[in-house]
Amino acid sequence: MAAFPLPEIEQARLEALQLSNMMDSAPEETFDRIARIVSRTLTTPVALVTFVGQERIWFKSRIGLDVSETSREHSFCAEAILTDEILEVEDALKDERFRENPFVAGGSNIRFYAGAPLVLSSGHRLGTLCVVDRVPRRLSDDERQLLIDLAATIVELLELQSAAKKAIDAENRLLDAVNAIPDGFALYDKNDRLVICNEHYTRIYDKTADLLVPGVRFEEIIRRGVERGQYLDAIGNEEAWIAERMERHRKLDQPVEQRLPSGRWIRVEERRTREGGYVGVRVDITELKNQQAELSRLAWTDSLTGALNRRRFIELAEQEMHRSIRSGRPLALIMMDIDHFKAINDVYGHAAGDMVLIEMVRRWKEELRDYDILARVGGEEFAILLPDCDTSGATLVMQRLLEKTSVRSVKLEVGEVLLTVSGGLVFCDRKDESVESAIDRADRALYQAKQEGRNRFVFRAA
């Protein structure tokens, strides 16, 4: 059993005291100022702001006293927190509760005590604002009211600190939760100013990370990002890209896909909040994009040689023919056929024939530019588009392809074979001509090359 009186809800009071973080806390000027005011106004040598712990009293502020704490067992404050009223002891020697108290009967010689409890809005009394004197005295009504008012001021300060701490804790929890999101996350207010974003968001937009602070407008972040090369698709088309991005940002009607300088892709998902702001999530879709590219590659390429297939060649040829007609730039088309390929299959087998096709494509690619288009359009038949290539250039390419084909034999598992190729060359310069019609003209030139003895090409000007 405790050697001192306890409030009715002591355990809940102690929990509230712990939440206040006042026990063993450092001095604060605000509390000291209140203690000085009450000491000077009431002309007492000692004024204290105390907090009553389970076994001891902590002096948050002390005027006229050197120690920072005392035992709760002999403390006046332990009695003062039993009610919401001021505890006033005019003469401790005449009060049966305190006359044998060692602070009264001993060297401290306390005679007068007045303490106003610090009562939270929850009803818990955490401690007191108290004054002590070594002579008996009595507070006037005004002095009592001053003590009550100043105690209430301390309580307001405590609850403001508690509210601020709760707000900080809530913000920290929110930050922890936001940073735990595996995607980039940002919240903007109704004025389109950044409220919060997580660390992943700043890593995604590393070129504008220094701008990603509360209060910065979305458009400013976008514009500075464009200036710094954050958005690859904006390069060379800056103002139009910004206008389109801001329009889609305002409408929030569909996701936006962005290509980053790092080579990664993100999808931007934005939703309006009830307050008129918006939340945005940036999801890394690089793997999805890679899968789509691989699927496209598989759909567009010949699985054996890696050259484009006929379907993709037709699509690209249509685009290049329209571009050539609009720009007036030349576009050459070559159709090639490996000579006597059927005999290779018949003599050496289809596996050997496959090795020949793979090797020929490898050799031909070495002679072509990055933007030239090579496709396998039949068994041993290939098509090549040469954008921005005039007659002399196309003739030179065709000659190099002939030489590259026959420069050395192809080694097979069952021997080796020396190959030649025949080709037909035409230019796609007819405004109303289809791709198939141009291919047909090149095929006729190819057929003529074969008729003339193979291992050659024929150029048909019209």
Structure description:
With 462 residues, the protein is α+β, with helices and mostly antiparallel strands. The protein has three domains: 156 residues, Beta-Lactamase (2-Layer Sandwich); 105 residues, Beta-Lactamase, CATH 3.30.450; 159 residues, Reverse transcriptase/Diguanylate cyclase domain (Alpha-Beta Plaits). Helix content is 42%, strand content 22%. It has a six-stranded antiparallel β-sheet. Strand 16 and strand 17 form a beta hairpin. Helix 2 runs antiparallel to helix 5. It is rod-shaped. The mean pLDDT is 91.
Main features:
462 residues, alpha+beta, 3 domains, Beta-Lactamase, Alpha-Beta Plaits, single chain
Number of helices: 14
Q: Biggest sheet: strands, sense, closure?
A: 6 strands, antiparallel
CATH class of the largest domain: Alpha Beta
What is the strand arrangement across the widest sheet? 3-2-1-6-5-4
Q: Any idea what the CATH architecture of the largest domain is?
A: 2-Layer Sandwich
**Low-confidence runs (pLDDT<50, min 5 residues)?**
none
Shape: rod-shaped
**Could you tell me the strand content as a percent range?**
15-25%
- Tell me the CATH superfamily of the largest domain: Reverse transcriptase/Diguanylate cyclase domain
Task: Please tell me how large the radius of gyration is.
Answer: 44 Å
Report the span from N to C terminus: 115 Å
Structural class: alpha+beta
| Proportion of helical residues | 40-55%
Quick recap:
This protein is α+β, with helices and mostly antiparallel strands and 462 residues long. The protein is 42% helix and 22% strand.
